[in-house]
Design goal:
The chain is globular and about 85 Å long. The N and C termini lie far apart (55 Å). With 553 residues, the protein is an alpha/beta fold. It folds into two domains: 172 residues, no CATH class; 343 residues, Alkaline Phosphatase, subunit A. The protein is 46% helix and 7% strand. The strands form two sheets. The protein has a seven-stranded mixed beta sheet with strand order 2-8-7-1-6-4-5, sandwiched between helices. It has a two-stranded parallel ribbon with strand order 3-9. It contains 19 helices and nine strands.
């Protein structure tokens, strides 16, 4: 047993790796690249320790672990495992994120435990061989032959092309060479001629501008479009489509979590994926690199800008990034007075109360109209049925939900009604607090909750996330102010990077060339940023880069 167990383990690991490489849909170059990595890792480990089976299990097991972790991350976040994840993992805020989503933590911890236990067991079972060093040249030659053509082809690929589940192991390995972020597609800096950017400045009439209140509703989508809600639908009509409002479906770039993948494109007008595989870490990597954003533009035309953030400001570098893109004030639970103790289940009403205090103080001290960006938490996962939410089953038809998801959706709808009630109360409190002020309210969903996988019409993950699960909603309405018609109004759905352009144009603010170009591109591409023709994307990105409104690393 002691003699044959190492052989069985190393043979099994090698066979599993071969099966993964055969089954993955990546190119031949990507598969050769993985073979190269495994061969080189085997060579180094065998040379160092002289244990051939240990070297085989460790090298093949590492590649298999990368594959499995990537499948886990793809399942929950829709993004493959990347090299920068390791850097991100050691940060405290990401550990908190993993703890919050216990399923990811449990899956990764189990996988790591199995691999570490297997390697340790082989170390104890297998005796070192003296000829390990002399055999080093054989796998090195194999690796060199496979490595030379594949590394050149893989490194030449655009980062966006690497973010794929077609070749997850190669994606992780090659991502080590793409540690920065670069706006794509674009021409080389200076190679294309473009007009100069002219910023818009505050006018004497800035004091007459309306307050702008933008609310990101955590894990919220228009459930009326999927379910027969009966009487519950009437409670939500004023939430999703108020009378006289601009409203419609909003396409986002994340599912089930990672709210910052909705924050970033709304504030900057650029989706994270435009910066390649590391774009998902934009709040870290692009701090100070974005020179044009919604808050910086509004600050320039005369607004005082503030953000009310429901968790600690160090979460995904939020505070530093927000301040770098033009927010005058950033409030998290610890910086509010008095301090708050918010958690994942905090009612919207509590956050709205703190936001109203911040708006009041800003109006008094700055004597300017206020732009407030408020993030909520009430709908954050998990959604487990409670005694209160189960009462909804009497008048909510959830036939579109799989049996094991009904309880979760009942809780989701219960909290949704809470959010609708709290938003209605916030509006009334704002009107009472500022009886003569004008305001424009915009609220939108950041992504679907994970329980949306229980919708029967959702296809299996490997076939891609259904488009309906990538659509939330937006609703824009005003108080004592008339919204202007725009060319973006008819677009259904609207991609989230265009939402700030719709806001600026609907208010009738003196927009600059960036918002004008985004409006034209949205119309040309029928509301789509992803999927828009490369020529249109390149023209917009070249304008941003050549005018140093975005700085590539």
């Amino acid at each position: 047993m002691r003699r044959f167990l190492p052989v069985v383990l190393s043979g099994s690991a090698t066979c599993l790796l071969v099966a993964v490489l055969v089954l993955e849909r990546g190119s031949l170059a990507s598969k050769l690249f993985v073979v190269s990595f495994v061969a080189l890792a085997f060579s180094l480990l065998y040379a160092a320790f002289g244990r051939i089976h240990l070297a085989a299990v460790a090298s093949a097991g590492t590649a298999l672990s990368i594959f499995l972790i990537s499948q886990i991350k793809l399942h929950f976040w829709g993004i493959p495992f990347l090299f920068f994840d390791i850097v991100f993992l050691v940060r405290k805020n990401f550990v908190e994120l993993l703890v919050n989503d216990y399923r990811i933590l449990l899956a990764v911890a189990s996988l790591v435990t199995v691999v570490v236990t297997g390697v340790w067991g082989l170390w104890r079972l297998e005796s070192p061989r003296r000829r390990g060093v002399s055999l080093l040249g054989v796998p090195c030659v194999i690796a060199a032959v496979a490595y030379a053509p594949s590394i050149g082809e893989m490194r030449a690929m655009e980062m966006m092309d690497l973010v794929s589940w077609d070749h997850t192991v190669a994606t992780f390995l090659i991502s080590a060479w793409h540690s920065g972020v670069k706006l794509q597609p674009s021409s080389p800096i200076g190679s294309s001629r473009t007009e100069a950017f002219t910023p818009v400045h505050a006018s004497e009439s800035a004091s007459s501008l309306p307050d702008i209140i933008c609310i990101l509703e955590e894990s919220t989508f228009d459930a009326r479009k999927l379910f027969r809600l009966g009487r519950a639908s009437k409670d939500l009509d004023d939430f999703f489509a108020p009378v006289g409002a601009k409203s419609g479906p909003l396409r986002v770039d994340t599912f089930g979590g990672a709210t910052w993948l909705a924050e970033f494109p709304f504030l900057t007008g650029i989706p994270n994926w435009s910066f390649g595989q590391n774009g998902c870490y934009a709040p870290f990597l692009l701090e100070g690199q974005i020179r044009h954003s919604l808050p910086s533009f509004l600050h320039g035309v005369g607004y005082h800008t503030l953000a009310v953030y429901p968790v600690a400001g160090n979460f995904v570098n939020a505070q530093r990034f927000y301040q770098s893109v033009g927010f005058d004030d950033f409030f998290d639970p610890s910086s509010l007075r008095p301090q708050r103790q918010w958690d994942w289940r905090t009612r919207d009403a509590e956050i709205f109360g703190a936001a109203l205090d911040a708006i009041r103080d800003a109006r008094r001290s700055a004597n300017k109209p206020v732009f407030a960006f408020i993030l909520t938490m009430n709908q954050h996962q998990p959604h487990s049925a409670t005694e209160e939410s189960e009462k909804l089953s009497d008048f909510v038809d959830l036939d579109e939900v799989e049996a094991d998801g009904v309880g979760g959706f009942s809780e989701y709808l219960f909290r949704l009604r809470q959010s609708a009630e709290d938003l209605r109360s916030f509006r009334e409190r704002y009107i009472a607090e500022f009886p003569s002020s004008r305001a424009v309210f915009l609220h939108f969903g950041d992504h679907h909750p994970p329980i949306s996988w229980h919708i029967r019409s959702a296809t299996h993950f490997k076939k891609g996330i259904p488009d309906e699960l990538m659509q939330t909603y937006y609703a824009m309405w005003s108080i004592r102010y008339t919204l202007q018609p725009t060319s973006l109004d008819p677009l259904r759905p609207l991609d989230i990077p265009f939402l700030s352009t719709l806001l600026v144009k609907s208010i009738g603010l003196p927009s600059d060339q960036v918002f004008d170009r985004r409006e034209a591109m949205a119309v040309h591409c029928e509301g789509r940023y992803e999927g828009c023709d490369p020529a249109s994307l390149t023209r917009l990105h070249d304008f941003l880069l050549n005018n140093r409104l975005v700085l590539n690393q």
